[in-house]
């Protein structure tokens, strides 16, 4: 039976395990005979990758919240038109590491720009394209940072956004929960503190992928 959800996003706070779970999910879908595209935000295109470098570079600590939102939405506009929409029209499943929920949580809720502004700009960038299912991997930010950076501070390996204070990341988590409340019919919040295999089972259940 074809998978009901064709555009699937894994999202969530830092260190929640998105990349690992996305890889497992891609492998399972390919094994089930699905044709799919795996992509990432910001990025996914040559233009988006260049924008990603600007957004995540610690050298741009002076970036204003509005500039940040415009850059994320610019990357997303190119991504949707050049990559995501054509793949869906060709009948592929699209798996994306982050999408609109991240901008809502990070820039709209935690960044203080306001979720209404973010949603207006995001709607223009996507031209109405929304995921069939957004899976938010939920984890206390303290645990997420410990997973990524150990018990010490984030340090030199952290990108510009990861270097925000822990209170910012707590607000990001709140933002994801607010997004899930607003879009409950196409969002699932899963506990990312459980063992990796158990989390993967929950992801499969959320998207309707039966494991043989």
Description:
By secondary structure, this protein is of the alpha/beta class. It has eight helices and five strands. It has a five-stranded parallel β-sheet, with helices on both faces. Helix 2 packs antiparallel against helix 3 and helix 4 packs antiparallel against helix 5. It starts with 6 loop residues before the first strand and ends in a 5-residue tail after the last helix. The mean pLDDT is 94.
Q: Main sheet: which strands, in order across?
A: 2-3-1-4-5
Number of helices: 8
Q: What radius of gyration results from the CA coordinates?
A: 16 Å
Q: What is the overall pLDDT average?
A: 94
Secondary-structure element series: EHEHHEHHEHHEH
* SS class: alpha/beta
How many DSSP E strands?
A: 5
- Note the main sheet: 5 strands, parallel
Beta-strand fraction estimate? 5-15%
Q: Which oligomeric form is depicted?
A: single chain
Structural shape: globular
How many angstroms does the end-to-end distance come to? Answer: 13 Å
Q: Unreliable segments (pLDDT under 50, ≥5 consecutive)? A: none
């Amino acid at each position: 039976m074809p998978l009901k959800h064709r555009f699937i996003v894994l999202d969530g706070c830092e260190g929640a395990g998105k990349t690992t779970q996305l890889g497992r999910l891609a492998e399972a879908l390919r094994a089930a005979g699905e044709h799919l595209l795996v992509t990432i935000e910001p990025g996914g295109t040559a233009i988006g990758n260049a924008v990603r470098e600007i957004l995540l570079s610690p050298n741009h600590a002076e970036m204003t919240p509005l500039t940040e939102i415009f850059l994320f939405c610019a990357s997303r506009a190119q991504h949707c038109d050049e990559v995501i929409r054509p793949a869906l029209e060709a009948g592929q499943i699209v798996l994306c590491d982050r999408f609109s929920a991240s901008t809502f949580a990070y820039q709209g809720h935690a960044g203080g720009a306001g979720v209404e502004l973010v949603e207006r700009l995001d709607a223009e960038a996507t031209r109405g394209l929304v995921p069939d299912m957004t899976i938010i991997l939920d984890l206390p930010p303290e645990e997420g940072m410990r997973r990524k950076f150990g018990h010490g501070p984030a340090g030199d390996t952290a990108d510009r956004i990861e270097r925000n204070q822990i209170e910012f990341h707590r607000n990001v988590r709140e933002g994801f929960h607010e997004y899930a409340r607003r879009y409950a019919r196409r969002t699932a919040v899963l506990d990312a503190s459980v063992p990796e295999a158990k989390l993967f089972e929950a992801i499969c259940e959320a998207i309707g992928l039966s494991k043989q």
